Amino acid sequence: MQLLETVNTLREQLALARRAGKSIGLVPTMGALHEGHASLIRAAAAENDVVVVSIFVNPTQFGPNEDLAAYPRTLEKDMAVAKEAGAAIIFHPPVKEVYPDGNATWVDVEGPLTAGLCGRSRPGHFRGVTTVVSRLFNIVRPERAYFGQKDAQQVQVLKRMAADLFFDIDLRIQPIVREADGLAMSSRNTYLSPVERQAALILSRSLAEAKRLVAAGERNTAAIEKAVAAFIQTEPLATIDYIELVHPSDLARRETLTDTSLLALAVRIGKTRLIDNTFLEVS
Ligand code: PAF
């Protein structure tokens, strides 16, 4: 496995691979790799000849009061995880390589896809994500790129961006990977103290509670959101950012449940903001 830090060296290696007829899969990450990332890399390795894992803590997707400085940086361990899962190249550029002096171009998906959910409490976040991912797509030019369903809104925003900009890249979305007790894997879980780690189970448990209500016949969105909020409020360390039942692709709020809906939530456990989601099916 190679560790490359510049766009030029990466492009040289990828040109060789392309000349040899090899397909390229990209797994964009911000590092602090966990089993969720490993599942993306394994999926990429199963479908592509060469897997590039980018490890880049993208400054433009963090708000001024967010955790950019504190975000875990664990390159040595990340390299071991990526190699084990089947990566051929780690692309780990300095900020100047992705955002060269004088750069002035942003990619912004406007409208309802980015206005609600995480977009409401993290203004500018998705603009940072789409800007960096479009740069990575142009740098790597992969056949396929891999993202986790844990970031359900990011998935829909990136699909919109890829379609609108005619990126000829297949976005391959992989299911949420959870710890044995249900907590969705996240690099931010490392911020949790042991007591907070236990309290964080309220997220996945509240999704299970919503599924239970739907199985019992509840179809009213507001009633489900209210019940989920009440459930989460039983945990003293939890502060709700949002709980919303939306259409799984346009992310528009739903009044009643029909076929498949997405229940998405963001909850602070102490100072750590965690997100989780699940599909609610009505037959
Ligand atoms: O999902 C993430 O880790 C990031 O938002 C991404 C897609 C790597 C862009 O920085």
Structure, explained:
This protein has 283 residues and is an alpha/beta fold. It folds into two domains: 2-174, Rossmann fold, CATH 3.40.50.620; 187-274, Pantoate--beta-alanine Ligase, Chain: A,domain 2 (2-Layer Sandwich), CATH 3.30.1300.10. It is built from eleven helices and nine strands. A six-stranded parallel sheet has the order 1-4-3-2-5-6, with helices on both faces. A three-stranded antiparallel sheet has the order 7-8-9. Strand 8 and strand 9 (272-281) form a beta hairpin. Helix 2 (35-47) packs across helix 3 and helix 7 packs across helix 8 (152-164). It is globular and about 55 Å long. The model has no long low-confidence stretch (mean pLDDT 98). Bound molecules: pantoate.
